[in-house]
Amino acid sequence: MDFAHPVEAIIPGAQGKVLNALAQITAPVSLRSTARIAGVSPAQCSRLLGPLVELGIVEREDIPPAAHFRLVREHVVARPLLEIVDSHGRFMELLGRTASRLRPAPASVIVFGSLAHGTAHAGSDIDVLLVRHTAKDADETEWHDGVAEWIAGAERASGNPVNVVEVDEREARSRLRSRQGMWASIRREGLCVLGVGLDELTGGRRAPKRSNARRVARRRAELSRKG
């Protein structure tokens, strides 16, 4: 999946760009503003908006001195469109939710790399740090089979290859504190989708439970602004 430009990946060309632009905005916007946000010419935008208005997915409102447009979010096809727009956030939630079914449940699951900073395209690796509890005994076969199934599910859900770095809590703490190579990037940009956050993993003060949710929400908002 092209998580950086999900709508254009599914609806190629100028029409995808225009629909993506309108999906980011709740207030009516002028044709010129829509074209600017979408990155298309006003002439292209005008040609595309007419049929979309006829279909009822876009409504036109005359606000002098210009016509303004907005997505009709109640339209039958608006919901799937908005879900495509939010594919990054929905996939992050899926990774955490399905990882919670592993036995034993991981201490932490942290996404890093291109998916974490919103630049993952079709074919980009999905990089994940999977942290096991140091002291927990587990059936190794059950654990490894579960991880393999989880990876396969994530690859099927995204269409992207999933690259997992698996360590226990002790090793995670040591490597994250070292701030060397990949671990510096994880500590700087990683997003926790399940379990304890990076501060706690490195032995710092326990972060509030909602901190990771706020970081994911903030990342979604940044991606939305990028279009």
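(the above was protein one; protein two follows)
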Amino acid sequence: MAENPLAEPRDRQLLEFFCRHTGLRSGEERLRTLGTLAKSFSRLPYENLTKIIRSSRNGKGPAARRLPAQVLTDHRDLGTGGTCFSLTAALLHLVRALGFEAQPILADRHYGADTHSALLVRIRGRPHLLDPGYLVVEPIPLEESREVEVKTPFNRLLLSPESPGRMRLYTRQQGGRSHRLTFKTSPADPGQFLKAWDESFSWEMMTHPLLTRVQGGKQVYLNGRRLQVRTHTGVVRKELDPEELHRQIAAAFGIAAPVVRTALAILDDASRGSS
């Protein structure tokens, strides 16, 4: 039977490992440490390369899931991160090891239900949101009676109540507002969360490289060969040369070149096989 990636931590070993790797002090006041932990964790890139490799070797089910320990050690050794489900499970482990009550939550995006995940953390009995993927790295109270706005290095986020148990997330840039997803604010049933995770191995996003990283006040985003760099002043877009793709991904996202080459080779083989 596959190990449960949502299991409660047995000890603080993985938390201490992450703290040593990032220079975090786990002995500070807990709430301050929680914010620092989430900020440090947000440096892990969102990337589907490890997911593509794992699926190719282990199939599209529980055996393909990357457990929290692997996500964190791979980041130290290879610069990798993961997609939202593996990242949520890893951060959940760390936050619980820090002593907080936390559960995963799911969100709906325009292309499907339960296609994103984040964390619900209880602080003094009140539910708060953490979602490093969208740079929600300071716990935000989930209050269904009012809107909350959060400033990031390159945009603003707006959490807006939609209906009981649902909150919409918008991004604000250059005067415009875009709906990104809708959070379900009740904790996800573990079976429901794992089902959504396993189904994600069959999504369209597994057919091309998809990565994003925030560094130095800018967001770098790659979809296929289209690279986008966003700052608070605007967006620069360009198409990458396919011959240079693996080198440019490695440089832009800090991921070890062998990981990038392996994932791109798997995608190339799959593309040839379907043509």
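Reviewer note on protein two: The two ends are 36 Å apart (CA to CA).
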